[in-house]
Write a structure and sequence with these properties.
Layout: E1 12-21, E2 24-34, E3 40-43, H1 50-58, E4 65-70, E5 81-84, H2 95-105, H3 110-123, H4 139-151, E6 157-161, H5 169-184, E7 188-192, H6 196-202, E8 205-210, E9 213-219, H7 220-225, H8 230-236
Parallel strand pairs: 3-7, 3-8, 5-6, 6-7
Antiparallel strand pairs: 1-2, 1-4, 8-9
Helix pairs in contact: 2-3, 2-4, 4-5
Length: 242
Amino acid sequence: MNMRPPVTNLPIELNEVSFAVRNVTILDRVTLSLGAGTPTVIVGPNGSGKTTLLRLAMGLVRSTSGRVTWGNRADASSERRAIVFQRPVMLRRTAEANLRYALAAANVPASERDARVRELLALVGLTSVADRPARKLSGGEQQRLALVRALAKDPQILFLDEPTASLDPAATKSVEELIGGIAARGIKVVMSTHDLGQARRLAGEVMLMHRGRIVEANDAASFFNHPKTLDAARFVAGELLV
């Protein structure tokens, strides 16, 4: 009998990680640890490095210097990690077919796909539009489809890059409820947002980025009520960081 513990990608740890493109530093000696638990929300002004940090933690890009590990390994498979970008790409097929493609890519047995498609569409309230071309869905519907398509991988960690940036309030509420439900299932959510209200609603932990560095990281209540740094206090107060 195989008694080995299941493979885990957690914690994700960055140690003095920098990332530069054409001698322009985007991330500057970032050190952090992302463990299991409540959502980690990354906030900060545009250009602070939030998206690059998510891509690097996902394993889509390599650091210029420093070390990244997943579950204490630098070569961990990305099978249990998934990412949804601000503007997800919909395949030129129906909503249901988008999910079937994702399930096939995740090596879900063909005999299980019908049931999984029904389950996942119901989870995000898209059963009634299953046969509609995905690219003709509303922005909120596309984002919900992108989220549930990522869940087809059965991820341990889900990265979300500004998941509601272009959505109206009703669609934003729907996506936030879905994110809360995903986190409640034990999936580690790591997301970026420019919306402090959203961070207050969803975060268990908040990290503030500025000029490619993490200038403060704390539990959400402490971050918002008792910021430790001047930059965090200014950001929470709605001031621009330049």
